[in-house]
Amino acid sequence: MKVLFVERDVEYIDPMNIQLLSALAKQRGHSTFLTILSADDLDADLRRIKPDLVAFSAKTGEHTTYFRANERVKQYSPKIFTIMGGPHPTFFPGLIETHDFDAVGVGECDEGWQELLDALEAGRSIDAIPNIVTRANASKVLRATTRASELVQLAGAAASVRPEYDLEVDPTFLRPRRTVLDTLPFYDRELVYRKTHLARFPLRSFMSSRGCPYQCTYCFEPKFNVMYAGKGPIYNRYSVKRLCAELAELKERWPTQFIKFYDDMFILDRKVDAWLEEFAEVYPREVGLPFFCLTRANVLTRENLAALTRAGLHSLTMSIEAGNEYVRNTIVKRHMRQQQIEDAYTLCWENGIVTFANTILGIPVRKEIMAQQGKTAIDYDIESLDINIRCRVTYADFPVLHPYPGCELTEYAVKHGFFDGDFDKLFFSYQAESPFTCFTPKEALMQKNLSLLGPLCVMFPSARWLRNLTVNVLMKLPLTKLYFFPWYLAKGYLNIFRVYPLKLSLWSLARNLAYSIQREWRKRSPHKLLYRKTLRLDRPTGQTLGGPPPDPGS
Ligand code: B12
Ligand code: SF4
To answer: Cα–Cα distance between 360 and 328 in angstroms, integer?
Structure first.
């Protein structure tokens, strides 16, 4: 079978989802192809490749782009089998009934995907493959969840919730979690590298584990854990031997200077467990490349940091998410004390480990609580800036909160009337303006500006004047477009010289700057297209969440 993956855009992180699915398809003898909507012509690719199946992997926000791409595929030939998988359809499998896909993949699909391809090729029925929802099996494997509409009624919101939001998969239709990752094939990087800049860009991503047991309310993992309750351990990991074999081969085949481990939690334990002990011994010998990984401040200790450093750790991320204790522990449920965060960052500072921190701006707090605490919405964001400065974070990123399906924080936002519950209006990036209705235009402006100026203030922690100038003056001015440029330069410098230090030629550096500046601009401009595409499928939606529809006359 000829399988065509359709991807919205390729930046600097390997699209590991389609790289793995492509490898799984090839393992069964199918051939795979890739169309990148920002660079390729989908119609021309359909004519040239004549695929039997087109596959989309969707995160919420980019799903509408794939809806449009799917329409194009079906217009070209209704006989082409189309399927959407990934986080968005995992939460909204009911879209099989409202959109013209032939199947939807829910949750982990490694086996389901292979079984589907084999069945299609052999002409067998595909209606009893766990994790694969079809129009024929939907009535049996999906069940009603009245949650979304109930919430909207509670909020008194006028927006209609799409019918697909009211269906969820019956967990008995899901396979148990995959506990053995070692038998998975190596990612098919060739699929992407043969036609993109990533072939030459020496930063490579990999996930050494799946799963996370924490409860953060803005993240999809807690909901995923509910769906998978009783279906095996939450956290599953490659053996060190298998992981190093894949990375060593990768290093042989493609110019590679740095590994970015993208696991939700690269280390889960405050102790140095057997896996980490072995990793610290084997990875430097078999792979020997500096790396970046993610964990949490409450998990980091002197001991596990020493083991990571022995292995070659260069940079580490521990999300802060909010400076204010109430926002951090009650609203977003990070369950972390300020002292723990500061101690973990000090530990990194003392050991020369470069740090990256995510901190979310625009987390809505109820009016009564703000009144009790004597704070305005923007005061919480300023507290978040200050904790980053105190922690001497090397690169502090400040995205603006966006509500994603299945998350407790989204329910909170709907319940309190901050958001109307319509995910189809969501922009593909959370670097854009807040989608919540509870912020005034002035507050939304300050959040956007702080998101751009914050990293600069944190970059120079002793320049108190810069922080004060930002908070008292710059943040309030309508100069967001201007602030983009110093932010972009700082981000480029911090990424390429500090967090993921790469040796790039001047030519390569210039080429990558030109490539990335357009994308960064676009992530912050929901209403603009800065780069040309042959087929304008990834045009932005006309409205971000919660806000009023655009005035047709303007
Ligand atoms: C790497 C990553 C990225 C990379 C993506 C690179 C790329 N082009 O793919 C980058 C950094 C660009 C990124 C960006 C964003 N991300 Co992100 N990201 C991840 C991360 C850490 C890993 C995803 C991954 O590759 N996993 C490895 C593969 C093998 O596993 P998988 O994707 O789960 O795929 C399996 C199944 O889902 C399924 N499957 C997946 N696709 C398909 C397709 C078909 C056809 C089938 C049958 C099955 C199937 O089968 C696979 C094998 O079992 C996840 C967190 C996580 N733990 O998954 C968040 C996550 C996917 N990201 C998320 C978000 C919110 C974003 C952003 C919107 C945030 C932002 N910055 O604005 C942006 C979106 C940008 C965009 N629209 O392009 C959310 C998505 C929530 C949602 N409801 O959609 C996640 C789940 C984080 C979270 N914990 O909440 N992200
Ligand atoms: S620790 Fe990270 S991956 Fe785990 S639930 Fe929280 S945000 Fe999600």
So the answer is: 10
